[in-house]
Design goal:
eight-stranded antiparallel beta sheet, 2 helices, about 10% helix
Length: about 200
C-alpha cells in the first residue's frame, strides 16, 4: 500500500511544477546554434551582431544607432531562456510579446540598473526583486522568461524575481535581443533556448 500511495503523490508534485523555473530544461529547443544566424532575421548590412566561440555578441556601430535582432519564428505562450554577460553601463533586453521587454542593464530613462524588470508602454510598472543579490557582475547570468496567457514570470540564476499579470500583450511575436541606441555598449548571449507552450 505504501508504494501505491507514493506513486500518485509523486505524479501530482511533478504536475504542479510543470510551469515553474525549477523544472529540468532538457525539453527546451536551442534557437541559436552558436555558429551562424540560422533562424534569425539578420540586417543588411549587419553592423551590430557577430558570433564568436559560440557566443552572440552585440555592439553598437560607430554612430551608436542600436539594433534589435529577432527570430524568424513567432511565439505566444512560451518559455525562453538565455545566458547573458555584460560589463559596465549597458541598455539591452529580451523581447517576447509585442511591446513587452525584459530589461537587461541600466535604464537610460531611470539611470539605474533595471535588469529583469519589465519595460512596457514606455515605463517600468513591474520591477524585479533581489536582482542586486543575484546578478553576477562581469559574468554569465541565466535569465528565464515564462509567458502563459496574461501571466508572466522572470527568473534570474534560478530564482524568481518577478511575477505579473497583464492582458495587454496577447502576442504572437518573435523573440528579440536588443542593443539600445545612443550608448556605447557590448552585450553577449549564449545558450538561447525556447519552447512554445
Amino acid at each position: 500500500m505504501r508504494n501505491l500511495t507514493l506513486v500518485p503523490i509523486a505524479f501530482l508534485l511533478a504536475a504542479g511544477c510543470a510551469w515553474s523555473g525549477d523544472e529540468a530544461q532538457s525539453d527546451l529547443d536551442s534557437i541559436f546554434n552558436g555558429k551562424d544566424f540560422t533562424g534569425w532575421k539578420v540586417p543588411e548590412p549587419n553592423l551590430w551582431w557577430k558570433i564568436q566561440d559560440g557566443v552572440l555578441i552585440g555592439e553598437n556601430d560607430e554612430k551608436m544607432k542600436g539594433h534589435s535582432l529577432f527570430t524568424e519564428k513567432e511565439y505566444t505562450d512560451l518559455v525562453v531562456e538565455a545566458e547573458v554577460r555584460f560589463s559596465g553601463e549597458i541598455d539591452s533586453g529580451i523581447f517576447i510579446r509585442k511591446g513587452w521587454q525584459c530589461q537587461i542593464g541600466v535604464s537610460r530613462k531611470l539611470k539605474k540598473d533595471m535588469t529583469c524588470s519589465v519595460y512596457a508602454r514606455g515605463k517600468y510598472d513591474n520591477v524585479a526583486q533581489d536582482v542586486d543579490k543575484l546578478l553576477k557582475k562581469d559574468d554569465w547570468n541565466l535569465i528565464r522568461i515564462e509567458a502563459k496567457g496574461d501571466h508572466f514570470k522572470i527568473f534570474l540564476n534560478g530564482q524568481k524575481v518577478l511575477e505579473m499579470t497583464d492582458n495587454g500583450f496577447p502576442g504572437p511575436a518573435p523573440i528579440g535581443v536588443q542593443i539600445h541606441p545612443g550608448l556605447p555598449m557590448k552585450v553577449e548571449f549564449r545558450n538561447i533556448k525556447a519552447k512554445a507552450l
